[in-house]
Design brief:
heterodimer; A: alpha+beta; Cytochrome Bc1 Complex, Chain A, domain 1; 2 domains; disordered N terminus; B: about 450 residues
């Protein structure tokens, strides 16, 4: 019943999706993967359950890596991609999608920026043409840039500045827990940096990062492979590759000491607390173990935190969080956190909350988890995975395929996820909890409500 | 669209030789067939209804038990008791604690959730297809045998009170509350529970609401997904046949306020003003509804709409403005929502009024309307392209007592609307003389800007 704005942000991306089912293996997602001569990655996956297609382009540039004096620029730039391209003027891209019966959006995340359309299946070629058009070149005026600076500043106001708990914890926590600027700056941007952006910045960012050899095109839905391949070659094949800069060092050092911060919030009436831990590196056995731990501790009403904090103690009406609040455990490529957060009464101390959490973690670290709990965690993962791969208009499947192509050069990894989780043993869960959920790997952020009134 | 065309025309005349020829987008191929899934309907001896439909390829099933009751039936009760009663249902049954319920649901790949609504309240579970029978048994237990433990009631009351306090300063919530108050007046739909209301909830009142409002005659279960309809139908009968009929539906239709009114809520120092603007319109059962709905999509109900083009994409006053028709049983209102930069509060409203008048006074072009029609037809396909979406569509028909032809003729009816229909719908239903306006913002800046409400924000 609450926190509409936070949930909205996370809900939009917590998708998983699956199609072809063989009796034994559950689901096998069809995956065709290849590269054009200019380096553009292409992933195609049929799903004929509805006469629609989802077309997406993911660029391998997120808000982590943006010019240091231009915080928020990666996201501002995302808006520019709707402001005019080689053959489409302002508003024409949006109108083109809508007039063809579709929906569209774009989003900026830690390590990618994506653009997608869901349209009736027979409009596939139209959308591929339009995405190729804006990859081939932008046509932005100062007027359009100024307009979108206004829009983005209003976005920050409505989501952060004019909201109680605005930016808590998704925007705040990375700034407190991380030490490397790339992970620790304000991703939405300081208003003065947003205001300072100019056309030269737009041009240089586009030329540096928005190249075919830094992107993947994904099509999921009701289409024929040969048609899609022909259209993609025709429209994207002629776009020139560019020389990509070396990726900066975005690593975080091992945290050795617990950190704790308070933030005063003039609009908040009640305290809130977020507790975040640096994650194991992506794709390691411990990474998958953290996925299971997340299910056991935090996800769903059967989770240990829900039972303890909500049902037994009545501290709060829900414990929120997980791995990557702006997505899921697969759609990032760098340092990340597992986080739990909740809103609570003033009479409850953060010390009590932390020690109750520590007790649950201690149990995980010292005692092998029982079979029933582990089985439930696996069923929840599978059940969600079905919806991510087989529902939501294909958006969940698109997202996994795009990220596995960009970050792992292996979109077929989508069919290996479940077996990776199945390999996790009770011993590995203990070991992972001990190393990654130790209090010295934790950052605590408390929201302090406005003084009595 | 019109502006763009104009621009193109000018360019063609003056600069054809210097500008490179622009490509036009490829049209795509021919449309594929879209068929709505054919549902199977069952009525139990106690009057409960069931609608079962197959959708999708993945082995998952959504079960939604709807009860035709909610806030609207709170006359004579504490405000918010309907939602509170439904929230308590998934807190345990006579034989299962909340914790056991959660474990059992998770084992089936889902979780039970029960929540109250305005006129329709839901108990829902999404499970793996193997567990349809067991999930139905669980839902039946949840709705027929609630525990209503004192300890759970006290715990939930604390949560409610905390959440009211947490949500108090969310500007969109404040605007929504004040706007509903303007629309519905003293009707339960116009009220919102305060901390004091919640403090007074008792087990006796919850049980009374439950007894008077939750029973088979008000129940309709929808099942959608990849499963065996025949077996599921038998399970529904097995688990729900013994449920008491309870009271028949009480509709309690509100009478909406039809007067021009302004409410300004102080939010000192706010960087934005939160605007809710609207008026009563005809509801979904009226033959004009499709015209009204397309008119709304063109005016403010889509990314490419006129108001969004104006106050976002041209002026940069706001991030996500939008209008919609909020349609309840036999009543509806049109609502425009936007969070705008404080200094642009008056100018934003002036532009919104300008766009309303423009649509009232000039028929849109055929091509602009064609775009809106295609968009609406496409959205209709998407709305029917998820398990939950299929249930939403069917439940909507039932709530509003519409024939099934409403869905099968939907696309045909979209394409029957003309440009003149759009303008006359704007004229007939978006009556500037009867607008309710709520603004949550910094009075020291906006009071002066809102004076033009008296004269309906004339431009120039």
């Amino acid at each position: 019943m609450i926190k509409k704005s936070f949930l909205l942000l996370t809900a939009a991306i917590m998708l998983f999706a699956v199609a072809d089912m063989t009796a034994q293996e559950g689901l096998k997602v069809p995956v065709e993967y290849y590269k054009l001569d200019n380096g553009l990655k292409v992933v195609l996956s049929q799903d004929k359950s509805s006469p629609i297609v989802c077309v997406a382009v993911y660029y391998n540039i997120g808000f982590r890596i943006e010019p240091k004096n231009r915080t928020g620029f990666a996201h501002l730039f995302e808006h520019m991609m709707f402001q005019g391209s080689t053959n489409l003027g302002k508003m024409e891209f949006i109108k083109l999608v809508q007039e063809n019966g579709g929906i569209l959006n774009g989003s900026t995340r830690f390590d990618f920026t994506n653009y997608f359309e869901v349209v009736p299946a027979h409009k596939l070629e139209t959308m591929l043409w339009a995405e190729a058009d804006r990859m081939s070149g932008l046509n932005i005026t100062q007027e359009n840039l100024t307009n979108q600076q206004g829009v983005v500043i209003n976005e920050v106001k409505v989501n952060v500045l004019n909201q109680p708990y605005g930016g808590f914890p998704w925007l705040d926590m990375p700034q407190y827990m991380n030490t490397n600027w790339y992970n620790a700056h304000n991703f939405y941007g300081d208003l003065k940096d947003l205001e300072a952006a100019n056309l030269e910045d737009v041009k240089s960012f586009f030329e540096t990062y928005y190249a075919p050899n830094n992107a993947v095109v994904v099509v999921v839905g009701d289409f024929e492979y040969a048609d899609a391949k022909a259209h993609i070659q025709k429209y994207f094949g002629k776009i020139k590759a560019s020389a990509l800069p070396d990726k900066p060092d975005i690593s975080e050092p091992r945290q050795e000491k617990e950190k704790e911060f308070s933030k005063e919030d003039q609009l908040a009436n009640q305290p809130a607390i977020a507790m975040a831990y640096h994650m194991p590196e992506r794709n390691t056995p411990e990474f998958y173990a953290m996925g299971i731990i997340d299910q056991i501790l935090l996800q769903g009403t059967d989770s240990k935190l829900n039972k303890k904090f909500v049902l037994e103690k009545g501290y709060t009406d829900g414990v929120y969080g997980g791995i990557n609040l702006l997505g899921n455990m697969f759609n990032y490529n760098g340092p990340m956190s597992w986080m739990a957060y909740l809103f609570h009464d003033k009479s409850l101390s953060s010390e009590t909350i932390k020690s109750e959490l520590d007790a649950l973690i201690e149990e995980l670290a010292t005692k092998p988890v029982d079979k029933e709990t582990l089985d439930r965690a696996m069923v929840k993962i599978k059940s969600e995975f079905y919806d991510v791969v087989g529902a939501q208009f294909g958006l969940g499947r698109v997202d996994l395929l795009a990220c596995f192509a960009l970050f792992d050069n292996k979109p077929a990894k989508i069919n290996e996820i479940i077996s990776e989780f199945e390999k996790v043993t009770p011993e590995l869960i203990q070991k992972t909890a001990k190393e990654y959920l130790r209090s010295s790997n934790r950052t605590v952020l408390k929201i302090e409500p406005k003084k009595e009134g | 669209m019109k502006m763009i065309k104009l621009l193109c025309a000018i360019l063609l005349v003056s600069a054809v030789q210097v500008l490179p020829q622009k490509e036009t987008p490829p049209k795509g191929s021919t449309p594929k067939d879209f068929k709505l899934a054919e549902p199977v309907k069952i009525t139990l001896d106690n009057g409960m209804q069931a609608t079962l439909v197959n959708y999708g390829a993945i082995p998952k099933v959504t079960i939604r038990l709807t009860l035709r009751t909610g806030t609207t039936n709170e006359n004579g009760y504490s405000t918010g008791i309907a939602g509170f009663t439904f929230d308590l249902l998934d807190e345990g049954t006579k034989t299962m604690t909340a914790s056991q319920l959660a474990d059992n649901a998770a084992r089936m790949g889902g979780q039970v959730s029960s929540s109250g609504g305005n006129e329709l309240s839901n108990i829902t579970i999404d499970v793996l297809a193997d567990y349809v029978d067991e999930a139905l048994k669980m839902i039946a237990d949840v709705v027929m045998n609630p525990a209503f433990n004192e300890s759970d009631i006290e715990r939930l009351k604390k949560d409610y009170i905390r959440n009211i306090s947490i949500n108090e300063n969310v500007p969109q919530n404040i605007a929504d509350r004040e706007f509903r108050k303007l629309m519905y007046g003293d009707h339960p739909l116009g009220k919102e529970a305060t901390q004091d209301d919640v403090a007074k909830y008792t087990r006796a009142e919850v049980e009374k609401f439950y007894k008077e409002n939750i029973g088979a005659l008000r129940a309709h279960i929808y099942i959608s997904g990849n499963y065996d309809i025949k077996k599921a139908g038998e399970s529904v009968k097995k688990y729900f046949n013994g449920w008491a009929k309870g009271n028949p539906v009480v509709k309690n239709i509100p009478k909406l306020n039809n007067k021009k009114e302004l409410v300004v809520v102080e939010r000192a120092g706010a960087p934005q003003s939160t605007i809710n603007l609207g008026c009563p319109v005809v509801d979904i059962s009226n033959p004009d509804y499709m015209k009204l709905s397309l008119m709304n999509t063109m005016l403010g109900g889509s990314f490419g709409s006129r108001i969004t083009s104006n106050i976002r994409e041209d002026k940069g006053y706001t991030y996500s403005p939008g209008s919609s028709v909020i349609s309840r049983y036999r009543t509806a209102f049109w609502l425009m929502e936007a969070d705008v930069t404080t200094s642009a509060t008056g100018p934003s409203l002036t532009e919104i009024y300008y766009e309303i008048r423009r649509l009232q006074n000039e028929n849109p072009s055929e091509s602009e309307l064609d775009g809106i029609k295609n968009y609406s037809a496409g959205i209709f396909v998407l709305q029917n392209s998820t398990r939950q979406g299929v249930i939403n569509q069917l439940a909507n028909l039932d709530l509003h007592e519409l024939p099934s032809s409403y869905l099968t003729d939907y696309v045909k009816n979209i394409y029957a609307v003309t440009p003149a229909d759009i303008s006359s719908a704007a004229k007939k239903y978006i009556d500037l003389k009867k607008m309710s306006l709520v603004v949550v913002g910094d009075k020291s800046v906006i009071t002066e800007q809102l004076k033009a409400f008296d004269t309906d924000f004339p431009k120039n």
